[in-house]
Amino acid sequence: MSKTIIPVILSGGSGTRLWPMSRPEMPKQMLALTAQDTMLQLTAQRAAGPAFADPIVVANARHADMVEAQLADRAVTPQSLILEPTGRNTAPAIALAAIAAGGGSDPLLVMPSDHVIADVDAFHAAIQAALPLVRQGWLVTFGISPDAPEVGYGWIQVGDTIEPGVHRVARFVEKPPRSRAEEMLASGDHVWNGGIFLFRADIYLGALAAHAPEMLVAAQEAMAAAKRQGIRIFPDAEAFGASPSDSIDYAVMEKADRVAVVPVSMGWSDLGSWDALHAISDRDDDGNAHGGDNVLAIETKNCLVRSDGIKIALVGVEDLIVVASGNDILILPRGRSQEVKKLIEAMKG
Q1: Which residues lie below 8 Å from residue 109, measured CB to CB, with a gap of 6+?
Q2: C-alpha 196: how far from its chain's center?
Q3: Which domains does the chain have, with CATH numbers?
Q4: Model pLDDT, residue 152
Q5: What is the DSSP letter of 62?
Q6: Which of 194, 200, 201 lies closest to 142 in space, CA to CA?
Q7: 145: buried, middle or exposed (CB in 10 Å: 19+, 13-18, 0-12)?
Q8: Rounded to an integer, what distance in angstroms lies between the CA atom of residue 99 and that of residue 220?
């Protein structure tokens, strides 16, 4: 069996929680939020090197040119760019990639395109720890060592040790209420579900056959009737649209038998809000995170200020998030950035 890991980069998300910079036409994975490189570029680069093959990228069809251009800027050429005609969540997207990979015994490293991993060496060590079990047919997920009672993430209870650093999954826990999250954090045997996976293509497709057969059939038919243009694959829209829309956690991981977790501390964040960006950003002596010449902050503390154009000036304020992009400006108290989704809904109405 080939030992080369095939990275599968999921880039279909819209990232609306980082409005106004992130929008359907320019989602957060296409933005440079934490470094000079975009989130997509950073994701591709952390799965580069002799252990990895060229990636398979699954993206929204409207972002095809942008994905190719950003990866080309970092000398990354995907072996396939699968362009979803419609979003059906992660389980069908990964099925498309597993089929494109040949559906054999090659390991697939499934990664969202919009996460932060500060300690790439720790990530690679976790991958190496997981590989022996992956080759034996286990489905492996990476559990993030928790440092807070997060209610915005799913959690995983870590079970018995199978191999050094690798444990059986005792159970998956839905996004919990705060009291339950505090209990799990205190117990020491729970990790956050980071949404990163490693498994063989054939094992994943077999799990779909057992637990979500309609999804597998839809993916197979969509790929069989796909149009191809260079590295671009356009799955058949009608066939793919017939797939149930479900996450890999619901469709496979919570139902399969041989599911393992590798707990890892690797400076991970899903960058799911402006508060999350403030938490991981470099801050000045007053706790402010801002960049560029178009931000001026005087007697201002603990604020996140970002602008891609107009100048923002703040005097004598604390604990604010201020983000300007184009003609849109977002202002809200720090700690409430999850409520951006209320604004998105209101603007739809």
Answers
A1: 5, 6, 7, 8, 47, 52, 127, 196, 197, 198
A2: 7
A3: 6-269 (3.90.550.10), 274-348 (no CATH)
A4: 86
A5: G
A6: 194
A7: middle
A8: 7
Over residues 91-107, the mean pLDDT reads 97
What's the rounded Cα separation, in Å, for the pair 37 and 110?
20
* Radius of gyration of the chain measured on its C-alpha atoms: 21
Task: Give the mean pLDDT of the chain.
Answer: 94
* Better pLDDT: 122 or 175: 122
Q: Give kind and range of the element (H or E) at residue 313.
A: strand 312-315
The arithmetic mean of pLDDT across residues 172-176, rounded, is: 91
User: Coil, strand or helix: which one is 239?
Assistant: helix
Residue 3 confidence (pLDDT): 62
What local confidence, expressed as pLDDT, does residue 330 receive?
96
Residue with tokens 């009608």: 238
| pLDDT interval class at 13 (50, 70, 90) | confident
Query: Which residue is listed with tokens 């440092």?
Result: 147
Q: Is the pLDDT of residue 349 over 80?
A: no
Going from the C-alpha of 124 to that of each of 6, 92, 160, the distances in angstroms are 14, 26, 22
Do residues 6 and 108 touch, judged by C-beta distance below 8 A? yes
Among 91, 72, 68, which residue's Cα sits nearest to residue 213? 91
Strand-pairing partners, residue 109, are 7, 198
For 232-269, the pLDDT digits (tens) are 999 999 999 999 999 999 999 999 999 999 999 999 99
The type of residue at 27 is P
| Residue that is written with structure tokens 């994701």 in the block | 43
Cβ neighbours for 47, distance < 8 A, ≥ 6 positions apart: 5, 7, 9, 55, 109, 111
Contact at 8 Å (CB) between 59 and 12? yes
- By CB atoms closer than 10 A (0-12, 13-18, 19+), residue 247 is middle
Per-residue pLDDT, 250? 93
The answer to whether the pTM exceeds 0.85 is yes
Instruction: State the DSSP code for 18.
Output: G
Q: Average pLDDT in the 115-138 region?
A: 97
Contact indicator for 104, 202 with CB cutoff of 8 Å: yes
